[in-house]
Amino acid sequence: MKLLKTLKYAAAIAMTAGFAGTLSAQEANDAPFKESWAPSEWGAGDKAGAVNRTTPEIVLKAVGLVKQGKTATLGKIYAGDAPAFGSRGWRLTIPGKPTGGPFGKHMLMYNDDYLATEIGQIGTQFDGPGHIGVKTSQGMYFYNGRMLGKTASAYGMGDLGVEHVAHKGFVCRGVLLDAVALRGGGDLAIPKGKGDPGIITDADIKEMVKRQGIAPIGEGDCVFLHTGHGNIWHPKDWDKYDAAEKKKRVAAFNAGEPGFGISACNYMAERKIILTGADTWAVEAVPGENADKPFECHLQMQTRRGIWNLENMDLTQLVEDKAYEFLFVWSPLKIKGGTGSPGNPVALY
Prior knowledge:
The protein is 24% helix and 19% strand. By secondary structure, the protein is an alpha+beta fold. It has one domain: Glucose Oxidase, domain 1, CATH 3.50.30.
């Protein structure tokens, strides 16, 4: 069963990215060694990545962005019928109804819930150090040079666990990039290839910053992209649809997505941001510029640089309020050995 699930997952990645090729057992990518991806700038012992850039000065500057006293939660509802990548699923049950009781003369009762899910990789999700790696000639390479076979087991990711990032947490200047407005309105379409308007470039980022009248993206920022693709799974409307409509929308949502291209990701990395996010399930464009390199931003940002990712965000209120800069506060759950984390980030402005 585990092998079957792994094969389905791999097939889903290949199909979604439009990549029909396969790699033989002998082929490998040794760029991490040739380009010295490790140790990171925070040393060989670092397990948290770019969130280490957060300083008291950066936090105080971000707090200064709160002008109106407004808040927006940026997470979506976790539910069994929500869109999910590949064979992932969310299965919540309430054992007992009630689970326990009654107790005492006042007849107290309680309910618990039991959850079966890929807890770090479902719904609004955070990609941690143990999520994305690369096959090299020396083994499966992950952030800061850690080899999967030496650090992880079936019971947790060891030194790649998400708890190491969670100990830091994210308090930063949040930047909303409205790609829908940039393209003249209307949700961005799934890109068909290089040069497609569904792929956001470094030039596009600079133009959005200029049009939105905000300071350039800088060190310690958390940058979020609004494409409109997330409206297929809009939290205000989802429960109004019947099962057939939901099935149709799940397929459309997972068929591919607009998002950051590799030039945009490299630009943000050069600007020393600490987190990316979007209203889509991968944040980057799928397919991207290079059909033979699916999820290239994931590899270059996360595995190489420790710049983590928040997917399936609800950015609608920020868009409506044109809140392009805000105080962003969130932390992954301290799940020992987890590949990622669910959560409900908060923007304050």
